[in-house]
Specification:
Layout (H helix, E strand, L loop, with lengths): L21 H6 L9 H18 L3 E5 L5 H8 L3 E6 L2 H5 L9 E3 L12 E5 L10 H10 L3 E5 L16 H10 L2 E3 L13 E5 L4 H38 L6 H56 L3 H12 L4
Parallel strand pairs: 1-2, 1-4, 2-3, 4-5
Antiparallel strand pairs: 5-7, 6-7
Helix pairs in contact: 2-3, 6-8, 7-8, 8-9
């Protein structure tokens, strides 16, 4: 999909910072980003998927651009709002949700809490030095964050902060947010994921993510194997086009090409999921090492250190 436009500070003349005005929305989003059948239909499908999967009571679209998702959710009875740094984009919001959308920077604290915050293809536009502040602002205003941010497309001039899924997962883990491993949001992008605030013993977090890592590795391997087998079969059929049943082979080639595209998208998604799981597992293990180091220092320097160490470890393991 083309990017849903951003949440980046507009450029001052000549400073090299991306500016998100009329030209950007006409030319830099693939299909012109305007009130047309493509974008209205796209965000209507996303709204349906969000409601079906998450049943939110209130939603903030962080980086809402022209408010198409806010509009779609509002029509479906959700208390939906949006913010975007582009005053031009906000000026194009439909009258039905104009009062629900505002020009604001995600680097500033949000004014209220939401049942769900959605951010679709936005964070890659955030200046790297604002990353921690933006993530902290989003996480302080919700317990559920539905995030999609491209892990590639470094050549896009406005992509200031492209990171791998494991990098975002580690950043979110510092805020107490872990990926929901049971939810599938590939109807948005292959790398879209739900992150939720989690309070659980550290050992359970590590166990859960290690289990998911094993499953994701297996699923990714299976998809990759299917894709390679499909490519081999496609190559054989293309080499055989000189035979009499050319038309029948042509139909099969077209089918296999479509299947190839589907498997490639699926593989991208599985790789993204695998990266996110690796990132959060690494973050949990880092926390575990840090706590163990602190406990060891307590043991060696404080009278009764063994008793204190035992209490710390029992708490981490979820025991009273």
């Amino acid at each position: 999909m083309a990017d849903q436009p951003q949440s980046v500070e507009p450029a001052a003349a000549g400073n090299g910072t991306p500016e998100y005005g009329a030209f950007y929305y006409r030319h830099d989003c693939g299909i012109p980003y305007e009130r047309n059948e493509h974008w209205l239909g796209f965000f209507a499908e996303i709204a349906d998927g969000i409601i079906r999967s998450l049943h939110p009571s209130s939603v903030l679209d962080a980086g809402c651009a022209m408010g198409f998702l806010v509009e779609a959710l509002h029509k479906r009875g959700v208390d939906a709002h949006g913010v975007d740094i582009s005053e031009y984009a906000i000026s194009q919001v439909d009258d039905s949700v104009r009062e629900r959308c505002a020009a604001a920077s995600l680097a500033e604290p949000l004014q209220r809490r939401y049942d769900l915050i959605v951010s679709i293809e936005v964070l890659e536009h955030i200046p790297a030095e604002e990353t921690d502040k933006v993530i902290a602002n989003l996480c302080s205003a919700t317990d559920r964050l539905l995030l999609s941010t491209t892990p590639h497309d470094f050549g896009e001039a406005t992509h200031l902060n492209v990171q791998s899924p494991d990098a975002w997962a580690a950043i979110l883990a510092r805020e107490g947010f872990m990926r929901d491993l049971e939810q599938d949001f590939s109807f948005i992008t292959p790398w879209a994921a739900l992150y939720t605030r989690v309070e659980e013993p550290l050992v359970e977090t590590v166990r859960r993510y290690d289990r998911a890592l094993t499953r994701q590795r297996q699923e990714t391997s299976e998809v990759r194997t299917a894709l390679l087998a499909n490519q081999d079969k496609l190559a054989e059929l293309e080499d055989a086009q000189g035979v009499e049943n050319r038309s029948q082979i042509g139909v099969e080639i077209d089918r296999l090409r479509e299947e190839n595209l589907r498997l490639r998208d699926l593989l991208i998604g599985k790789d993204a999921e695998l990266g996110a799981v690796r990132g959060q597992l690494a973050s949990a293990e880092e926390r575990s090492r840090a706590v163990t180091a602190v406990a060891s220092r307590v043991q060696s320097r404080i009278p009764g250190g063994m008793r204190i160490l035992g209490a710390v470890m029992r708490r981490l393991q979820g025991r009273s």
